[in-house]
Amino acid sequence: MPTRRTEVQVRAGVEGDLDALTAIYNHYVRETAITFDTAIFTPEERRPWLLSHPEDGPHRLMVATDAESQQILGYATSSPYRPKPAYVTSVEVSVYVAPDAGRRGIGSLLYDALFKALAGEDVHRAYAGIAQPNEASERLHARFGFRHVGTYREVGRKFGRYWDVAWYEKDLG
């Protein structure tokens, strides 16, 4: 029997998504070195993060859902790169896909929507830090025009070992 390909919709994230977004993120906290957070979050602890990504402006949250079930399949964000005022036109971007939704092009759909949303904003550069190794994330970022600009060696410690983070940038101007 052929596999039915579900349609995926991408939209701005809303407060009602908080539980599902927290569950996706907590998977990566518990199981991977993709994020350097080491303790899982409650949805209430993640609420300020969600609220820091409004539907307009340079700091966005895009959510991919299954068109039929409305199950959240992943999300992408653009967040402040650094807190100092001179960095205001730079954003750090990231993508998280639900563990059972990988290899379906969801990361690409999310980044496509995110970068289209940022096109009208006063944003000059996007940066992405990728814990190593992560070939899938490197391919995704290369597909969207990111270039490697350097690697921080053994910058984070998780699961009893040190991890490198490769940094990538993309011109948005």
From TrEMBL:
InterPro entries: Acyl_CoA_acyltransferase, GNAT_dom. SUPFAM superfamilies: Acyl-CoA N-acyltransferases (Nat). Residues 8-173 form the N-acetyltransferase domain. Keywords: Acyltransferase, Transferase. It holds the Pfam family Acetyltransf_4. CDD domains: NAT_SF. Signal peptide: none annotated. This is GCN5 family acetyltransferase.
